Predict the structure.
Amino acid sequence: MDKGGSAIPDEEWERFLREAEAGTSGAPEEPSARARMVAQRLREEPGPPLGRRTRQPPRRRGGVWYVVGLLAVVVLFVVTLGPGRLAGRLGFDGGGGSAASGQPTPDDPFKGSPAEHWAAGTAGITMPSARATGWMSEKQVAEALDSSLAFLVDSSLDPAVLRGERPVKAIAALNPEQADVKRYLASAFDTPTRKNDPLLLFSRFDPSYARLAGDVIRTRGEITYREGERGAVEVTADVTFVYPLVRAAGDSDEVARTIARREIVMSWDDPDEVIIEPGTFSLRSYRVDSANGGCDNTTGYFVPEFEKERGPSDDGTRVDPYERSTSMDERMRDRDAAECGTATRS
């Protein structure tokens, strides 16, 4: 099995920044160069890779979705911010170290958060090197990795999608032979429910309520891969996205941040083994853990709370939405899908 690259811990990143500022010789190299190269390749060669994909119908049981035949979990967890969390949401709480004090502003929307030192867009996503795996050659694996990154862009970074438009390009990358996913998409945008929630796969904000503060989204995460079932190349994306937002109306300069950690497992299937549409992949699993995106929210949009809307503190699990050393499995193991916990910072 080939797992590809690994994420860079926050401590290592902080060490890099300190050494770089001090001009220390041998300071570690910024880990995002590969992602920038891939982003450039996506701009120059937008064509999809060779096709692949299976069918796996999701069912909800106790807050967990199963993609039948592939035993994949699809979960949406949310974390809200209580009034007693203002200092934590703007700074470092819960063992995250210290940060610059003060409120974020439209000109400095990541102030006081770890995302101040994260890269923007695809530059924050660590990419592995390609090598022949399963049914694919090295070149085909490279194409699958590039298209997997493109799906993240089209589903969680595209400006039109973020302002509420349908993620047409991202949906086109999903295997249409995956019948239950197709049914999920058919109802998720027009009649969203907890079961059929577009936020499970896509980041969207109601343009009449909130808009991005600037055009920068900070990210940290990784894409890895291995050989999956029937020789498929199974690509896993585990990425945290930080969205700074301001109110859509009025002249308030208050900035709220929504943080969404997504884990998506994409199976690039062997067309000799699985019924697929060329240029598409099968969803093995998809889940999101979000902070300040709206508790018990079935609008189909993330709904960040600004100071006036902030409700009473929740007694649920305390979660640091920036912490990435804990796996998604461990992070969600003891939490119910409907639980609204408390973010220690935003």
Summary: Confidence is low (pLDDT under 50) at residues 1-7, 23-31, 45-73, 80-100.
